[in-house]
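Problem 12. The chain below contains 226 residues. Write out its predicted structure in token notation.
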Amino acid sequence: MKNNEMRIRKLDSSVLVAKEEPFSCEVLSKLLEREGFDVVGRANELDDLIQKIHTKKPKCVIVEANLIGKETNHLLKELSESSSPPKLVLYFNNSNSKELTKALDANFQGYLYSEDRLEELYKCLLYIQTQSKYYSDGFKDLIKKQGLNEIDSDTQQKLKTLTNREKQILYLVTEGLTGYEISDSLCISYRTLANHKQNLIHKLGLSSNRQLLKFGLQIKSHINTL
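Solution.
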């Protein structure tokens, strides 16, 4: 009974595979089909991927980080305009800390490392049908080596409510600057800084400056101060 349910879940998950190298894309597609997944298309370029997302309407997209490159925001914008956007599984294949941070901030549903075994991909595809996030052990090890960490969707939403000034202050707090040093560097009064900190504490659901520092250190790599 359990195997039958597993097969039904696989068949119910239409998949689009996007990898730069055509042969690798074809091989992965065939392996997924052999496992019972419904592969509805393949793509080797970003524009082709976006077009097929709109025409094939897959429930899940497996995409290689190199194929997206610096166009993550463009891809996410296109998906937001879809009536039923697919879940995205990212295959990450380098250890650049900036690229890792961007990948985590993109809020994909699944994160895999290029050296993960195929069983990890199968597990991920089944998991994200009913759960929100999947991080493979290989991907977790990769981000830990870079001093990063995954953050949940609730934390991401809280960070989106912060103004640029509040993000600047939160970042400077994590740098160990005193209140007077922060106010001097931003050319604002100490009173104004105190008000910003209170707003930060309120927006982030915290209760003290100590908690603000602890929170900031935990998500420091995700604070975009630009």
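Discussion. The chain has two domains: 2-150, 155-222. Students who got a different answer should revisit the alignment rule from Section 12.3.
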